[in-house]
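Lab notebook, page 48
Experiment: co-folding of the full assembly
Goal: obtain a model of how the components sit together before planning crosslinking
Operator: M.T.
Materials (sequences as entered):
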Amino acid sequence: MPAAAAALDATFAALADPTRRAILARLAQGEASVTELAAPFGLTQPAVSKHLKVLERAGLVEAGRDAQKRPRRLKAAPLREAAQFLDAYRAHWEANFARLDALLDDLKNETDEGAGR
Amino acid sequence: MTTFYAKAEAVLIGDTGVEVRRSFRAPAALVWRAHTEPALFRRWMLGPPGYVISACEMDVRPGGAYRITWTSAAAPHPMAVFGDYREVQPHRRLVTTEYYDTGEPGGPLGDGSLQVLEFSERDGVTTLVQRNDFATTAARDAAVAGGMCDGIEPCFAALEAALAAGIA
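Observation: model returned without errors.
Model output:
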């Protein structure tokens, strides 16, 4: 598998787990240590460390400089490199706009009826 | 010659923006109403999979507030998008702030984004340009990445909402 595709696989595998997404969500608010991450999720520190390892391997999270606390922080660049990155966003909006098309058709018909046609 | 965007197109704008374009075979006045009247808006705007709009309030005037709330039987908390209107030019331009509230403890998240909607009508076709500008590249990327998980499960809520927090 080409390196880029492998990296992408790692990104998606990392994102496939709700706890890991929640950890990313927490890190998006600022860096946090393993201890700080464990508490709100009701996880043990080893469980958090395991998730962090997956996230670090995917390049989504890195350890900060403080050697004692080793706070983790978010890296979003791998997300941007995923080919699906923009396309899924586009598809999300297209799904909305297809529904908007249907609504607009309804509104146009109502307007026509209102005009007595 | 104006481009007709039969399907939505999306592009990143600079380091912190993202833009979506889409054309509709309807007058700008109707596309505007669909964005500014709650009863109409909730008929087309989807939430994360499994979520439905449970409340939608829009006080469409400069300084007025809006809030759209989604709930899911499977989720303990509702999620919401909210903000206020910065610029209101009927049928032409709507500028709002946009914040996410995942409903998790800790309340609303981050700096949110500034959203500009531009409606331009020509020959009965209205093209909508929707642009969001975030505080940071990471916040922009995270918000866009929310769409990546669409259809998987409410990762839209988890990722997009939370990552919109504005990471330096």
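Interpretation: The radius of gyration of chain B is 16 Å.
Next step: discuss with group before ordering constructs.
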